[in-house]
Amino acid sequence: MDNYRKQLEEILDLAIEKKATDVHISPGLYPTLRIDSQLTPLTKKAILSSQDTQEIAFSILSEERREQFLSQRDIDLSFNYQEKARFRINIYYQLSQISVAARLIPTKIRTIEELSLPSICHQFAKTPQGFLLVVGPSGQGKTTALAALIDEINHTRSDHIITIEDPIEYLFEQDKCIIDQREIGEDVRDFHRGLREVFRQDPDVIMIGEMRDPETISSAVTAAETGHLVLTTLHTNTAAQTIDRIIDSFPPYQQGQIRIQLAATVLGILSRRLIPCLKGGVINAVELMVTNSAIRNLIREGKTHQIDMVIETSSEEGMISLNRSLAALVKQGLISVENAELHSTNVSELRMLLKK
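User: That's the sequence. What structure does it adopt?
Assistant: Structure tokens below.
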């Protein structure tokens, strides 16, 4: 086991040194890093056998966690690596063999400015109650953006913050706030139970790592209604799609009620994309919906397809359309036209903006 743990540590050290975002350990392949969005095999290492990947995976797991993994066939956990870095790890079976995917979590929590998030995010961090969602595909920095907001609250308000995460990613150092971080499977059974219990714990701010089911969504919206600031993520692409996904997760007889609740509580929806930069690294493109009376009416009336138009025509209120964000990055020479089109949800509109 010691030899396999040493193998793992050498791979993780390289990931930290090369500023990789992800590590992949799969049988029949070289250990592989994701650097600047590109998969990069470590060809100076040996190709991994099925035995290698299993023993590397088991070197991370406690006996209890190993039993849990063998029972359910995959497991999420956070891994503190020698005070150098934290990793969010998923161990899973594929073709009856074990693979490992690890996401590198920087030890330093970056600020709103360092992440190039819209400046209106500072206002969200000051808001005493409401519902704020950060959305986007997997691996686009949703949790990193939430961490920046939570950390700003930590340094500017005297509140009780409770996070419910699966697994815990960023560790917050308490400043002006009390921060309790609860991990699914370790500190609480599931998101729904964690949210049910949270009302007895006197929170001001609640961060939910991810909304996965109608019970969690319903509890989150209720928490926002009852005087709490609730921050969470969802795997959706746009603000309009996010509202639809939330409402569609409920049976038809409940959808009218959830529309009314959402219209009253949603503060904003921030969608992030991390795009390869022509100068190296990745850069942030965003869509931002800031809820105003027009947006609230559209949500209540089920006219979410019109939300994109409101975002497009409300830049003076801090709203940003994804295409305008992408077009600005192209015009500044920061990203290629090809990558802008790849990440756009309306390519013809983007091309029109680039011609202006």
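The chain has two domains: 2-105, 121-320.
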